[in-house]
Specification:
- The protein has 5 helices and 8 strands; from the N terminus they run αβαββββββααβα.
- By secondary structure, the chain is α+β, with helices and mostly antiparallel strands.
- The longest helix is centred in the N-terminal third of the chain and has 20 residues, at 2-21.
- The radius of gyration is 20 Å and the shape is globular.
- The model is unreliable at 3-23 (pLDDT under 50).
């Protein structure tokens, strides 16, 4: 009887450990971090990174499958992590709650972070304060899709936390970069 109990305990321990180490578990509560770039250009024309996080109203972008539409993700206070200087989005914008890879966000382009210059309740007037370079999106897309295809959700969620970075900018500067193809 002791042997059966001991064998059962060992089996349950092995099963529970393998579940904890299993990188193929979908986490519907995962978050995507959008952090400041590591390279800094100190200039007074840009908001400091912490102010970009505090003042971010939305992330606006385009997607070729939705011509003429501006896609956007709003930032509520709970998605402004000032302690870690990052903006947060739901991971379900890339891996939905059923574990499917979705492309509305990750296949987008022309990502800008905007603030609203008027008080709530009035028609918004937007000001571009940062952007996510297209090169960052392309690299993140390739890495995340590869990890997803291999079923390595630990790698997917690690990339969610590190792959997306924003650069401070002004609307005029961003439009010039876009015109030159350097966005």
């Amino acid at each position: 009887m002791r042997t059966i109990i001991l064998a059962t305990a060992i089996l349950l321990t092995v099963i529970s450990c393998s579940k904890e180490d299993n990188p193929s578990t979908v986490d519907p509560n995962a978050m995507i971090s959008i952090r400041p770039t590591a390279t800094k250009t100190k200039t007074s024309q840009y908001l400091p990174d912490i102010e970009i996080v505090r003042q971010a109203y939305d992330l606006n972008f385009r997607h070729d499958d939705f011509p003429g539409a501006n896609m956007r993700r709003g930032f509520i206070d709970a998605h402004k992590d000032t302690a870690n200087v990052r903006l947060l989005m739901w991971g379900t914008d890339i891996i939905d709650q059923d574990g499917n890879y979705v492309t509305e966000f990750i296949d987008g382009k022309d990502f800008i972070i905007r603030r609203n210059l008027v008080p709530s309740g009035q028609d918004p007037i937007y000001d571009t304060i940062a952007f996510i370079p297209q090169s960052v999106i392309i690299a993140a897309r390739a890495q995340i899709f590869e990890a997803y295809q291999s079923g390595n959700f630990d790698a997917v969620y690690s990339l969610f936390d590190t792959a997306f970075t924003f650069h401070p900018t002004t609307g005029e500067e961003w439009r010039a970069l876009k015109e030159q193809g350097n966005n």
